Fold this sequence. Notes:
- By secondary structure, the chain is an all-alpha fold.
- Helices cover 59% and strands 3% of the residues.
- Strands 1-2 form a two-stranded antiparallel ribbon.
- Helix 2 runs antiparallel to helix 3.
- The N and C termini lie far apart (57 Å).
Amino acid sequence: xxxxxxMIGNVERLVKVGIYDRPxxxxxxxxxxxxxxxxxxxxxxxxxxxxxQAMEDARMLTMCLLRSCPPxxxxxxxxxxxxxxxxxxxxxxxxxxxxxxxxxxxxxxVVADPEKCKQRDELMRQEYRDVEGMLERMRSxxxxxxxxxx
Length: 150
């Protein structure tokens, strides 16, 4: 612990930065521009899903564009609108749930009061004992969304 204490003691300036998310957007696109990843659904880091969800967005948006816009052709505005709407329909519910879940995990995990820390630790201990319940809760987070583009 001494090297850590020494490092902390040598810090000349500390910067405290908050962790924020925001309420879900009603739409992720306007005209020919679509948002994805943190631009569409910023999340706190408590589920470790920010980068993963951006990659799922990219995959799903690609699938929606390929479905609406034939390869080697220029994608018209109405085709883009169909692709972007489908992308929203497929992704919004899951990403909104993940943002909410990360916020809830943060509120549960990040506590300062020693008594609240003990309560949190006991609650988490109990949650981790229920292996089947924990696996079920994690399935919706960590398993790639099925492609239902038909």
